Amino acid sequence: MKSKLKKISEVIVDYLKSVGADGLCCDDCGCGIDHLSPCNCINIDLCVPAKKYTGGCKNCNSTCSNSGETENYDGTCYKPLEK
Question: Which residue of 19, 33, 76, 83 has the fewest CB atoms within a 10 Å radius of its CB?
Answer without folding.
Answer: 83
